[in-house]
Design brief:
This protein is α+β, with helices and mostly antiparallel strands. Helices cover 40% and strands 19% of the residues. The protein is built from eleven helices and ten strands. The two termini are 15 Å apart. 10% of the residues are buried.
């Protein structure tokens, strides 16, 4: 319901002084209070279009057949050649592509062994499909994905096959930079509190990233649309609050003179009839 105040003997001014940072138009104050803390901190959960777009790509990726192959080093066809040929397949035929081409090129598809088991069961909390799903989600939200390659003794050496893979986002790692050369020496995993947890050597981490012309850290597609997504969320919160209030915009009606109880009721009913509900 609208609040009616008479501007006499400074009543309006004294009342408004008690509300800090009031926008220029008093009608906006309820909106301001509602939206000032509505930050978009979890876009994949909070913003419907961010979720829909990224989830569609992540779902498609985890459904793509995943094959591990080995090849004869004496064979004329190299891994790069096969991958280039796959990339050159017309789009209309891409999803009809089968493994015959790979096998005819002299490559053997691996369906057992340590490497197969590693990707089929990357860690106790994930299957292979979820590993690739997390890759797509984190890449689009943060622009970087880190795979920590672990071993049973938690100290993977350079020639050892990892026993598990755990994915993390860009926000979990900071680079250890050589002050003299500027090269990256390793990556330090940080806790959500910001405290350092462990530093990994380069061979203990696989870093995927989208090229960023402005910085060595990857740039995420979400970075480009974050402002629009934030505006969408604020509009959604405001609309929800409006409907929860019976479609009645809150605020103040400022009048020049004092009004009687009957006049106040008449003004309030007229305002609600004019502005309340989905038809106004």
């Amino acid at each position: 319901m609208a609040l009616i105040l008479a501007n006499k003997y400074g009543a309006i001014e004294k009342y408004l002084e008690a509300i800090p940072n009031l926008p220029n138009t008093t009608f906006l104050k309820p909106m301001y209070l509602q939206l000032k803390d509505s930050s978009l901190t979890e876009p994949y959960r909070q913003h419907v279009w961010t979720y829909s777009c990224i989830n569609a790509k992540a779902t498609a990726l985890k459904g793509v057949p995943f094959n591990i192959v080995k090849y004869d080093r004496n064979n004329k066809s190299t891994t790069k050649t096969v991958l280039r040929n796959i990339r050159n397949v017309p789009v209309e035929k891409l999803y009809k592509y089968d493994t015959n081409f790979i096998q005819k090129s002299g490559f053997e598809i691996i369906e057992d062994g340590s490497v197969y088991d590693l990707f089929n069961d990357p860690n106790p909390s994930m299957c292979r499909a979820q590993l690739w799903e997390s890759y797509m989600i984190l890449m689009h939200l943060t622009g970087e994905v880190f795979w920590v390659l672990g071993s049973k003794d938690d100290n993977l050496n350079e020639i050892e096959l990892p026993s598990f893979i755990v994915p993390y986002s860009k926000h979990n790692f900071t680079a250890e930079i050589d002050k003299n050369t500027g090269n990256i020496l390793g990556w330090t995993k940080t806790k959500y509190t910001g405290a350092k947890e462990k530093t990994y050597k380069l061979h203990q981490v696989i870093r995927f990233y989208r090229y960023n012309p402005y910085d060595y850290r990857g740039i995420a597609p979400y970075d480009v649309i974050s402002k629009s997504a934030s505006q969408d969320l604020k509009a959604q919160i405001l609309n929800e609050a409006l409907f929860d209030n019976g479609g009645m915009p809150g605020g103040f009606i400022k009048v020049k003179e004092f009004v009687t109880k009957d006049q106040r009721k008449q003004l309030t009913e007229g305002f609600e009839a004019q502005h309340q509900g989905t038809q106004n």
